Amino acid sequence: MTTLDQQCRAALNRPAEQQALEFELQWYSWGDLRSVADAVEGLLAQAGVKEGQTVAFAPRNRPWMVAAELGMVAAGYTVNMVYAFQSAAGIARDVGKAGAMAVVAGEDDFSPELLAMVAEQGLAAIALTPTGAHFVTGAERSTAKPSAIAPDGPHLLVHTSGTTGAPKSVGFSFDTIAKYVVGQNVSQAASTAAVDESTPPVLLTFPLGNISGIYGLFPTVLSGKRGVLLDRFSLDLWRDFVRRYQPPMPVLPPAAISMVLDADIPPEELSCIKMIMTGAAPLD
Description:
The chain is built from 10 helices and 11 strands. It is an alpha/beta fold and 284 residues long. Strand 1 and strand 2 (26-29) form a beta hairpin. Helix 1 (4-12) crosses helix 3 and helix 4 (88-97) packs parallel to helix 5.
């Protein structure tokens, strides 16, 4: 089995013209993603962040955020996910708890609160754009206390849901993700998989910063499948996806299934669907 970082590198090295992800009806190619990933990797190296050290990452569901994540994993950084769908103060608080050397986020997420945390902890700060990445002025070099490097290699850290208390950060080694999230079949094919543009893409609606997002993203992009990114689930956008791509087996959480049923959609509009994958909550 190839390692997770090797699989991410292989994906980023796919032919530049091949479609990777659609967002807001625009397709982004593997060349587009590789350009952003290379920029992030280069800036982290310039900032003095070493392989295995921790980078705080506040991703939203955007192709350039996926590119940054793949690039950081390919370079062997530990990535501490910060939930981006919260207040500016919440993002800053979680970045402050990450034990990171640097923070990567969208340009618009560098709020006064986050900038204050960057200055307080001496973090390097990298702002993502649709076409690249750049340092936040004054945060070009990390002066933070060096983060610990896990003996079993780099990790992805995500927050629990908090259903039994305050959300807690839980780490998954790259080996664990490669084995149990990506899976052996995907792993074996990852280095040679070609993007099949005749197969319906996978709809990705779960936030990239939580475990559901990781479960959706990595098997999709590493197996050579295309993805359609939504900021969050929307019934209208889901119906548009079904009309345009005719997916035979979409993934919907129980709450979304209820929304589909309550919408009284004409059966012929859903005739392509043979099976729905679901989970995470009871479904009658």
